[in-house]
Amino acid sequence: MQPDDFRFSHALRVRWAEADMQGIVFNGHYLTFADVGITEYFRAMGQTYSGETGANGSDFFAVKTLLEYRSPARFDDMLDVHVRIARLGNSSMQFLIGIYRDEELLVNGEIVYVHADQSTRRPSPIPQVFREAVVSFERLMPEGVTA
């Protein structure tokens, strides 16, 4: 996985509270970094949680997270959180994540979200407006979007 495999990235600096006494980032914080990256991805795509993603009593819920640790980040490192949607199904989508320091891949992973009714948490189709925004942002061909 290379940085060029992603259309979007978001820079952030490791804060003191995210590192242990040796200055190494605690592993749980990488999921927060990924979440910040996904939030900024939505924003760059023009789809915020208060917009179409949460319309009509529905929302996206994380159902699977997988992170693979390759090398540690340290206090005060500048990181780039790379994000892309690798699969867009009827009611779910798979994000791929790459967290880099310069060109070095520190952590890679995937996060799967399901679009669902907020009260019942039962899956529902991803809104067409959101789907079109993803296809346009990622420059996916419609046939590249899986059902």
TrEMBL record:
Annotated organism of origin: Halopseudomonas salina
The UniProt record lists the keyword Phosphoprotein: no
Protein name: Acyl-CoA thioester hydrolase
Keyword list, A-Z: Hydrolase
UniProt-listed SUPFAM superfamilies: Thioesterase/thiol ester dehydrase-isomerase
Family membership noted in the UniProt record: Belongs to the 4-hydroxybenzoyl-CoA thioesterase family.
InterPro entries (alphabetical): 4-hydroxybenzoyl-CoA_TE, HotDog_dom_sf, YbgC/YbaW
